[in-house]
Design goal:
Layout (H helix, E strand, L loop, with lengths): L33 E6 L6 H13 L4 E4 L4 H4 L9 H12 L3 E5 L7 H6 L26 H18 L5 E5 L14 H15 L2 H8 L26 H29 L4 E3 L1 E2 L9 H5 L6 E3 L9 H15 L5 E5 L18 H11 L2 E6 L25 H15 L12 E4 L2 H7 L11 H15 L3 E4 L10 E4 L7 H12 L3 E5 L21 H4 L1 E6 L7 E3 L5 E3 L3 E5 L3 E5 L9 E8 L2 E6 L2 E2 L1 H14 L11 E8 L2 E8 L5 E4 L2 E3 L5 E2 L2 E4 L4 E5 L1
Parallel strand pairs: 1-2, 1-9, 2-3, 3-4, 4-5, 6-7, 7-8, 8-9, 10-11, 10-12, 12-13, 13-20
Antiparallel strand pairs: 14-17, 15-16, 16-21, 18-19, 19-20, 22-23, 23-28, 24-27, 25-26, 25-28
Helix pairs in contact: 5-8, 6-8, 10-14, 14-17
The protein binds alpha-D-galactopyranose (GLA).
The site of alpha-D-galactopyranose (GLA) has 9 residues, from loops.
């Protein structure tokens, strides 16, 4: 076998997102916005079901997700099915006019499965097989799991295809959590097959993985293992491919169930709930192409003061995954969750502000985990629509009020959000950057995305997220916050974007490697060198806590570069410190556009000023709302709506005219948005 020299890293298949196919779109039925949550009646008696259904009607619930964790109930022994309870629930809900988003229960196989197929247990990177008594799927590559999942899905799809309550399908639950990568033997052999399909020959794999380094060269597919815990750092390209394989293996499981369902109910939408910005292990650009409607789960990080901004980020990312079409907020919480170190209750009004922020950003379904709080099990301290305290509670009052508010907003259903600016987002770049032995632990894609997103949020600019190889054409400006891995193809797309008149703002640590975690020939920032008009001679990360002054004002932390200018002009330099005199911000007129580079982590105010300057030059309108006021527009044809969400403790007044939809009041010239409250205007 001949082995090719390294590096030859440009020939392997690319993973650019393809255009979105037409979708089936939306749960069948009502023209209203969807409102409801997960409903787990198997935890309750029939008497409670009847009470629940009455309360759902009171709260104007029109959709519930049922059956997500009931595999052990409907298939108590392998191949023996018992649908008596589910039949009754479906009938009761249909009788009450409440639609069902029917779950396949495959996120949590029953006890008999684990007993019969112990080799299907997922195995951690350090070799520990995971036990039963919790939840979490089996190894996605286990043929036993795939067969069992297909069998129960087939039964459900056949049985309920024509049921009047059935409005859509909810496959599995949160693929990738709590189990993502699995190092079991089924996975290892499937990984080998995946690699053979990707590379064709072992030589090509050796080349892509750079196995000449540390003597890792392979002669045969059978020698290749999953990237288990090893003596020291494992080949990063091997880890990256295992991450890709894992996302693909789980996606195969989804597609298999979806196709069984589609054969019975081709007219109904099939979804699975994403965790857009919080699931590190799925490449949702790929997943989004396979669902009929994008649905998402979002939970606040309770202790972060800026969690309303992070919520907005997650919602904007979800809308982007949905290709701008309306999407479903499948889960969020009415108040506290139970799985964070300190599970803070939401403040009065926060439930509505959170829900309406998702709505403002394109969600036409607002759903919660879960309808009635569980008495037993691991989630008993998690809030619900109906808390343990019952209906005489703040949470229930806010839940019913939100139900009425959403009914008043039905006319906005289907309206969309337009963004002129996008942030680049690539799960593969996250995977690569999060591996070991990087130039600095402070180089964090997520942290920079949040910083740039926050600047945009504060300026009142709505943004999309886009893959570097996605459709960039609709944006006046793009931001690449520490996009560590950039493929040659992505680099070409970004170069063409700038050449054609776009504004690209790139922050440090971008373009350091390609899709195999190999440095681009010629060094940093790889294919971004041309549009940025510079080359980086050396990376100059800072000590922890180290700061430097910028000559145009403000301070810098974390990073600098030793830059060789190849056409770019210097906008700001480091005034002192290890990079004194080096460029901190550069601007490169390139073709009809401009490439900006920020070689450091400026303080928040300096960053906001810079973002405003770049957007201003790009002709993007910067509304600059009062501090803490979230303003987002949705439109449909000539109809325009503006959602105002006041996240502060003081009333805020803005200029506005139109009709306030929650109250029906006319607004003429000025609108006061009360503290911690929403207002929604049809302009
Ligand atoms: C996830 C799950 C739910 C529930 C919630 C609790 O989103 O999908 O089943 O466990 O978390 O926050």
């Amino acid at each position: 076998m001949t082995l090719s020299p390294q590096p030859t890293t440009t020939s392997a298949p690319q993973t650019a997102p393809a255009p979105q196919p037409a979708r089936l779109g939306w749960p069948r039925g009502t023209a209203d916005l969807r409102y409801g949550g997960d409903y787990n009646p198997e935890q309750w008696t029939r008497e409670t079901w009847l009470e629940d259904i009455e309360l759902m009607k009171q709260a104007r619930v029109n959709l519930v997700s049922v059956g997500i964790f009931n595999w052990g109930l409907i298939e108590p022994r392998q191949g023996e099915y018992d649908f008596a309870q589910l039949d009754e629930i479906m009938d009761l809900l249909a009788g009450a006019g409440i639609d069902v988003d029917l779950g396949t229960p495959t996120a949590s196989p029953p006890a008999w499965f684990w007993k019969a197929y112990p080799d299907s247990r997922p195995v951690t990177r350090d070799g520990v097989p995971l036990g039963f008594g919790s939840r979490g799927m089996a190894s996605p590559s286990s043929p036993h799991y795939r067969r069992a999942a297909a069998a129960v899905t087939e039964q459900l799809a056949r049985r309920y295809a024509d049921h009047p309550a059935l409005a859509m399908w909810h496959v599995h639950n949160e693929y990738g959590a709590p189990v993502g990568e699995s190092y079991d033997e089924h996975s290892v052999s499937a990984f080998r097959g995946w690699l053979a399909a990707r590379y064709g020959t072992v030589d090509a794999l050796n080349s892509a993985w750079g196995t000449a380094f540390w003597g890792q060269r392979y002669q045969d597919w059978s020698e290749i293992d999953a990237p288990r815990l090893a003596a020291t750092v494992t080949n990063p390209a091997q880890r990256l491919d295992f991450a890709r394989f894992t996302s693909d293996a789980l996606l195969e499981c989804f597609v298999a169930e979806r196709d069984i369902i589609r054969a019975h109910t081709p007219q109904l939408a099939v979804t699975t709930n994403f965790m857009a910005s919080s699931c590190p292990s799925m490449d949702y650009w790929k997943w989004a192409r396979e669902v009929d409607v994008v649905s998402n789960d979002h939970y606040l990080t309770a202790e972060r003061e800026d969690n309303h901004i992070l919520l907005a980020l997650d919602a904007d990312l979800t809308r982007s995954l949905a290709g701008g079409r309306p999407w479903m907020l499948m889960e969020h919480s009415t108040s506290a969750v139970n799985w964070q170190p300190r599970n803070l209750a939401k403040r009065p009004g926060e439930l509505a502000l959170n829900s309406l922020s998702h709505f403002a950003r394109g969600a036409d379904a607002i759903m919660f985990f879960q309808f009635r709080a569980s008495r037993s099990g691991a989630e008993k301290f998690h809030s619900a629509m109906l808390p343990h305290a019952g209906t005489d509670s703040r949470v229930w009052r806010e839940v019913t009020a939100l139900g009425s508010d959403l009914a008043a907003l039905a006319s906005m259903r289907g309206s969309t959000v337009d963004a002129r600016v996008a942030i680049l987002w690539d799960w593969e770049s996250f995977w690569a950057q999060d591996l070991e032995w990087r130039p600095s632990v402070d180089l964090r894609h997520r942290e920079r995305i949040e910083a740039y997103y926050t600047a945009l949020w504060q300026l009142g600019v709505t943004v999309d997220f886009v893959h570097p190889e996605g459709d960039l054409s609709g944006y006046d400006a793009l931001i690449a916050p520490s996009l560590y891995a950039v493929t040659s193809r992505g680099g070409r797309a970004l170069t063409d974007y700038v050449r054609g008149g776009g504004r690209l703002l790139v922050s440090f640590g971008s373009g350091l490697v390609d899709e195999f975690d190999a440095v681009h020939p010629g060094g940093f920032p790889g294919p971004l060198s041309e549009p940025l008009g510079l080359t980086i001679e050396e990376l100059l990360p800072f000590r922890s806590g180290e700061t430097a002054a910028l000559d145009t004002g403000g301070t810098a932390t974390v990073w600098a570069d030793d830059i060789r200018l190849d056409g770019a002009e210097v906008v700001t330099r480091f005034a002192d410190g290890r990079a004194a005199g080096e460029p901190a911000v550069t601007r490169n007129a390139f073709g009809a556009g401009v490439g900006w580079y920020v070689s450091t982590r400026p303080d928040a105010e300096t960053l906001r000023g810079l973002v405003a300057r770049v957007l201003g030059e790009a002709g993007v309108e910067i509304p600059g709302p009062p501090e803490g006021l979230e303003v987002v527009e949705r439109s449909a044809g000539s109809a325009r709506y503006r959602v105002y969400l006041n996240h502060t403790d003081a009333d805020l007044t803005v200029a506005a005219s139109g009709r306030e939809l929650l109250s029906g009041a006319a607004v003429t010239g000025s609108l006061t948005v009360p503290a911690r409250s929403p207002r929604i205007i049809a302009l």
